[in-house]
């Protein structure tokens, strides 16, 4: 059969066993890069192409929305039927789809809106204020953590036992009040998406029966990172007839801090009877060196199922370890290596820079910009999370649903329209007293109950929104977005100041219109285009959004690199306290999780891996002396090659070509060299730019901080 060979030929023996297994529960347990995701995709193709399962009957859970898109793209040529009918997505994406379809059963308003964690935080603060609870004593972040972990454990406020402990009682009270406010405003936070979808299936027997009949096959990638609720949901949907196919790697479990339970992998065979287990041991991704190093590192973890990976590929180059002076030097090193790679004909999109914490990206970005290397940040500060974008989206949300209190609150006085804090407070109390939305309360008060001037302002706001609503009726999404931005004066508001930042904000607003234009809605009758776009902005933001993805170096945290692969990988900031993170150093479980994170990072690399650490790093405002990460010592030394700092303080290294120019300035100074300046005192050379008369040099002065100087005039003396 033609289909059979298309599906099985690109697989090894063990992979075929999993893909071609007779229908039943299957667990594939294997290390990084062994083809788990490939197996999952081929299994779907097998089910459809060979077993004759309808795409409609398949539910596949991926780790990112991007992975879902890739899965569809890779499937289509294999199965020759549209993969659209399949439900593929993240747990959150799938839960959202279900809630849109069944908003009635879920007891949600049809126009319910999703709020991200920033909106949730604001709503919690407002709740605390309403309860007259002190933020110092009840930090909103802590409340947020409490609420979300309750939801992840499927616990509603009423399920939480009152233990008589005062603090706990108060926290439950906040949770309950937050839920009431969220519910009244028709809002759904991320954790709510999952819990609500789970409860809706659990409590509505017709609905459950329908989906159990429909989804005869459920497949889950990255299973080691499912939490209790997600696991319960899969069990619920599978019922007694659904076949569940999971792939995972206990060594890559990195979300226990978000409630993921790696023991779900072990429990699986108890909960799903007659589970077959397949292990994959051949790695197809990385060189022998990278693999050996990663295996050596993860071998230091005690709690693991234990597996070794091998590769038939070449050993490749050693892993380069660079000890930088500081984070600038480290970033410069990365940039130099990237320039070398590009000069040798390599592509930028083949490169990833991975770091432990988002804050590390700034210095890297600075250097990349200076070197004119395009980059994009994957999952960092997302486009849709920028203030100006959230303002515009809040208008669109309020246009969709007047009950959306979070949106109302965000924009009622943005741009400033003379509706001050006192007025908003009055609106809030009126809403609370009458159990109505802020919108409704504002309308009420504007008629009667506010000083004349304030009442007029509020009425004007209400009229603006209503007029805009009528105005955008029937418009294409991007036209509507454009109209909203213009008519509300957001552009003028955010363009104030006229500086570069203001320009950037205006450009971002334009970019929102472009994003709306480029947006292709699914042909999904349950949601109109604006609703889909708003959901996309909160759920998928930052994953695929506009930008020259193909032409850019990718920057991301180690966490968001999971499942991906790149020919050239830089792991930066391998320092005690940063990675492993300070929080986990004293805790054996925490430390093992950090080590798994390091394993995930290393195994993203296909051909070449660079690791670096800095001796001094400024993080969160203070400068620290940093010891190299213990993980560097745990990697067997044979795989490593120490790269000497290019500064070679006494022995400058001359090499022809761009690299040497970047490392040594016309003034004969080296990167990292200590120099003295008449006015600024002593400092360290950080970077060079340009040559000849226009050459500039950056020095980090001990007292005066970092400065760019014209090399020819600076009169820097080596010391
Ligand atoms: P991770 O644990 O990082 O998610 P994984 O186990 O899911 O990794 P894949 O991403 O599926 O691994 O595969 C890793 C790489 O190896 C991919 O580039 C994939 O196309 C390739 N690959 C997998 N199996 C084979 C095979 N049998 N022959 C050739 N290449 C393969
Ligand atoms: Mg994978």
UniProtKB/TrEMBL annotation:
Record's keyword annotation contains Nucleotide-binding: yes
Keywords assigned: ATP-binding, DNA-binding, Helicase, Hydrolase, Isomerase, Nucleotide-binding
EC class name: isomerase
InterPro entries: DExx_box_DNA_helicase_dom_sf, DNA_helicase_UvrD-like_C, DNA_helicase_UvrD/REP, P-loop_NTPase, UvrD-like_ATP-bd
UniProt KW Ligase keyword: no
Catalysed reaction, written as an equation: Couples ATP hydrolysis with the unwinding of duplex DNA by translocating in the 3'-5' direction; ATP + H2O = ADP + phosphate + H(+)
Pfam families (alphabetical): PcrA_UvrD_tudor, UvrD-helicase, UvrD_C
Binding annotation for ATP: 30-37
GO MF, any single term: DNA helicase activity
Annotated ranges, domain UvrD-like helicase C-terminal: 288-563
EC number(s) from the headed UniProt entry: 5.6.2.4
Residues annotated as domain UvrD-like helicase ATP-binding: 9-287
Family to which this protein belongs: Belongs to the helicase family. UvrD subfamily.
PANTHER family: ATP-DEPENDENT DNA HELICASE SRS2 (PTHR11070:SF2), UVRD / RECB / PCRA DNA HELICASE FAMILY MEMBER (PTHR11070)
This protein's name: DNA 3'-5' helicase
Organism: Salinisphaera aquimarina
Taxon lineage: Bacteria, Pseudomonadati, Pseudomonadota, Gammaproteobacteria, Salinisphaerales
């Amino acid at each position: 059969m033609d289909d059979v060979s298309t599906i099985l030929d690109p697989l090894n023996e063990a992979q075929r066993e999993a893909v071609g297994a007779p229908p039943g529960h299957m667990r594939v347990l294997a290390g990084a890069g062994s083809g788990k995701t490939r197996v999952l995709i081929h299994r779907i193709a097998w089910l459809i192409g060979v077993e004759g399962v309808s795409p409609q009957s398949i539910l596949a859970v991926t780790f990112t929305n991007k992975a879902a898109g890739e899965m569809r793209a890779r499937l289509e040529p294999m199965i020759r039927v549209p993969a659209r009918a399949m439900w593929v997505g993240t747990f959150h994406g799938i839960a959202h789809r279900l809630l849109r379809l069944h908003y009635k059963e879920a007891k949600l308003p049809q126009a319910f809106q999703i709020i991200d964690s920033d909106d949730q935080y604001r709503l919690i603060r407002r709740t605390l204020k309403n309860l007259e609870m002190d933020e110092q004593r009840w930090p909103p972040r802590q409340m947020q953590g409490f609420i979300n972990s309750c939801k992840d454990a499927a616990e509603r406020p009423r399920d939480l036992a009152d233990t008589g402990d005062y603090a706990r009682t108060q926290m439950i009270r906040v949770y309950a009040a937050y839920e009431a406010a969220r519910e009244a405003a028709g809002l759904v936070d991320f954790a709510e998406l999952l819990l609500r979808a789970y409860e809706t299936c659990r409590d509505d027997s017709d609905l459950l029966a329908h989906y159990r009949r429909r989804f005869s096959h459920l497949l889950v990638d990255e299973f080691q990172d499912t939490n209790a609720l997600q696991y319960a949901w899969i069990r619920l949907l599978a019922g007694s007839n659904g076949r569940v196919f999971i792939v995972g790697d206990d060594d890559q479990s990195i979300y226990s801090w978000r409630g993921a339970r790696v023991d779900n992998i072990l429990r699986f065979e108890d909960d799903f009877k007659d589970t077959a287990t397949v292990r994959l041991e051949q790695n197809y991704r990385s060189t022998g060196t990278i693999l050996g190093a990663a295996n050596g590192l993860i071998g230091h973890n005690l709690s693991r199922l234990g597996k070794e990976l091998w590769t038939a590929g070449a050993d490749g180059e050693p892993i380069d370890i660079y000890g930088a002076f500081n984070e600038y030097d480290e970033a410069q090193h990365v940039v130099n290596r990237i320039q070398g790679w590009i000069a040798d004909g390599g592509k930028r999109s083949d490169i990833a820079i991975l770091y432990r914490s988002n804050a590390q990206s700034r210095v890297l970005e600075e250097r990349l910009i200076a070197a004119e290397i395009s980059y994009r940040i994957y999952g960092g500060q997302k486009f849709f999370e920028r203030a100006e974008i959230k303002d515009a989206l809040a208008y669109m949300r309020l246009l969709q649903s007047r009950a959306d209190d979070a949106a109302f609150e965000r924009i009622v006085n943005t741009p400033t329209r003379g509706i001050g804090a006192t007025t908003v407070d009055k609106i809030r109390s009126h809403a609370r007293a009458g159990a109505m939305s802020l919108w409704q309360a504002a309308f009420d008060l504007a008629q009667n109950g506010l000083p004349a001037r304030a009442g007029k302002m509020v009425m004007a706001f209400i009229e603006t929104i209503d007029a805009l609503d009528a105005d955008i009726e029937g418009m294409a999404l991007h036209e509507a977005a454009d109209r909203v931005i213009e008519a509300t004066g957001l552009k003028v508001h955010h363009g104030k100041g006229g500086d570069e930042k203001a320009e950037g904000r205006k450009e971002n607003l334009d970019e929102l219109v472009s994003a709306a234009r480029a947006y292709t809605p699914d042909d999904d009758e349950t949601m109109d285009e604006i609703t889909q776009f708003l959901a996309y902005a909160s759920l998928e933001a930052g994953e695929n959004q506009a930008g020259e993805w193909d032409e850019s170096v990718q920057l991301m945290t180690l966490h968001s690199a999971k499942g991906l692969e790149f020919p050239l990988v830089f792991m930066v900031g391998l320092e005690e306290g940063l990675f492993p993170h300070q929080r986990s150093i004293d805790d054996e479980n925490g430390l093992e999780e950090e080590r798994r994170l390091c394993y995930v990072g290393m195994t993203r690399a296909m051909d070449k891996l660079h690791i670096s650490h800095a001796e001094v790093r400024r993080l969160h405002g203070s400068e620290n002396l940093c010891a190299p990460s213990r993980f560097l010592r745990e990697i067997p030394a044979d795989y490593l090659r120490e790269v000497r700092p290019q500064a070679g303080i006494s022995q400058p290294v001359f090499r022809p070509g761009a690299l040497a120019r970047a490392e040594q300035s016309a003034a004969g100074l080296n990167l990292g060299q200590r120099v003295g300046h008449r006015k600024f005192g002593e400092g360290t050379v950080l970077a060079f730019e340009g040559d000849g008369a226009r050459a500039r040099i950056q020095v980090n002065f001990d007292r005066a901080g970092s400065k760019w100087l014209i090399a020819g005039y600076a009169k820097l003396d080596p010391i």
